[in-house]
Amino acid sequence: MAIRRKADADKLPVSQRIDNRLDNPRRRRMNPTEYEIKGELFMNCSCEVVCPCGISLGKHPPTYGYCQTWFALQIDSGHFEGEDLSGLNAALLIDIPGRMAEGGWRVAAYVDDRASGKAYNGLLQILSGAAGGNTGVFNFLVSEIIGAEREKVVIERDGRRRRITVGRKIQGEIEMIPGKNPEVPVSMENTQYWMGPTIYPAVGLKSKVRDYGWLWDFEGKSADIIPIHWTGPGRV
C-alpha cells in the first residue's frame, strides 16, 4: 500500500524552520558576512506620534512602556554573498517588552516567496543580526525568533504613502507628515539611528496584525520611513 505524504505545513516548528538555516540568535553567535542592501524600510508601532525610540537610540521608553511593531523592507538593489536580492521584500513583527535598547525582542519574520534558497537564508541572517554589519545590533537585542516563513510580501510606495500586505497577517498603510511646505514631508536628518540617518515621521492610516496570537491595531499611531544602505562588517 502506498504511503501518502502530507503536504508541508505552512508553519513548521521553529527548530526545523530556522535552526537548519542559520545560527539561532538565542545562542548569541555572529557570523560576519558579505552583504549590501539599498532600499527602504518603513514601520508602524504602538507609540504615539512621534515614536521616541529611534531618535533616542532606544534609550527613551516607548510611549506605553513597551513596543509592538511591524517592519516592511523593500530592497531596490543588493546581494548576500553574491546572491542577488534586488526586488525582494521582507517583513518583521517585533514585540519589545521595554526600552528598545534593553533587548528582549521577540520576532517573527516573513521573507518574499520569490527568494531563492540562498537569498531566503541570507535575509534571515541579515534580519536576525547573525550576519553582522548594520543589523548586527539585532544579534544582541533579539532574544527569540518565534517564527520564519516564506510569504507573498506586497509592498507599495505611492508618493507620501506606503503600504504592506502579507495575506491577512499584516495589512498596513502609513503616510508621511506634511511640513510647512505641504509638498515636502517632515524629516529628521543626520541622526545616529542604526537603520539610517534620515527618518521621515509618519502616521498609521490603517494597520492590522493577526498572527502568532497577536492582534494589533496601529491606526493613528507612530510610523517611520527610512531610506537604508546596509552592509556587512567592514563596508562603508
What does this structure look like?
This protein is mainly β and about 240 residues long. It has 3 helices and 12 strands; from the N terminus they run αβββββααβββββββ. The chain has helices at about 15, 115-130, 140, and strands at about 35-45, 65-80, 85, 90-95, 105-110, 140-150, 155-160, 160-165, 170-175, 200-210, 215, 220-230. Strands 1, 2, 3, 4, 5, 6, 7, 8, 9, 10, 11 and 12 form a 12-stranded mixed β-sheet that branches.
Concise description?
With 236 residues, the protein is mainly beta. Helix content is 8%, strand content 41%.
Series of H and E elements = HEEEEEHHEEEEEEE
Instruction: Give the oligomer, counting copies of the same chain as homo and different chains as hetero.
Output: single chain
State Rg: 17 Å
Tell me, briefly, the overall form. globular
Fraction in beta strands:
35-45%
Mean pLDDT: 87
Low-confidence stretches: 1-10, 12-28
Number of helices: 3
Main beta-sheet strand count, sense and barrel state: 12 strands, mixed
Number of strands: 12
The end-to-end distance, rounded to whole angstroms, is 60 Å
Q: What's the helical proportion of residues?
A: under 10%
